[in-house]
Amino acid sequence: MRVTSSLLGAHFGNLAKVHGIVTYKLSPFEQRAFAGAISKGLPNIFNRIRSNIFIVAPPFIVGYLIYDLIEREHHHLSRKNPKDFENEE
């Protein structure tokens, strides 16, 4: 495949020239990655949990109750009947 002379040395992001659009970039060293993480983030976490707990929790509770019931029934059925061994010596 032959590369045209206009694309030689151009990187993928610089293949076309766009006029009339202004872009601004901020250095990663000047950004504050955790700005407001405690003052705004923690209350937001509690609000999200409170708003979704009644949607998410019931299926997990029902699933746990079914699992617990099945495990108890399995344990009950896997035990030996003591009356079967009364006459053995």
Describe this structure in words.
The protein is mainly α and 89 residues long. The protein has a domain at 35-79: Single alpha-helices involved in coiled-coils or other helix-helix interfaces. Helix content is 47%, strand content 0%. It contains 1 helix and no strands. It has one helix at 37-78. It starts with 36 loop residues before the first helix and ends in an 11-residue tail after the last helix. The model has no long low-confidence stretch (mean pLDDT 86).
The CATH architecture category of one domain equals Up-down Bundle
CATH fold-level topology of one domain: Single alpha-helices involved in coiled-coils or other helix-helix interfaces
**Shape annotation:** elongated
pLDDT averaged over residues: 86
Structural class by SSE content: mainly alpha
Order of helices and strands: H
Sheet having the most strands: none
List unreliable stretches of 5+ residues: none
- Separate helix tally: 1
Over the alpha carbons, how many angstroms does the gyration radius reach? 33 Å
Instruction: Return the CATH class of one domain.
Output: Mainly Alpha
Number of strands: 0
Question: Could you state the CATH homologous superfamily of one domain?
Answer: Cytochrome b-c1 complex subunit 8
Distance between the termini: 90 Å
Helical content stands at: 40-55%
The proportion of residues in beta strands is under 5%
Pfam families: UcrQ
Membrane topology: Single-pass membrane protein
Subcellular location: Mitochondrion inner membrane
InterPro entries: Cyt_bc1_su8 (IPR004205), Cyt_bc1_su8_sf (IPR036642)
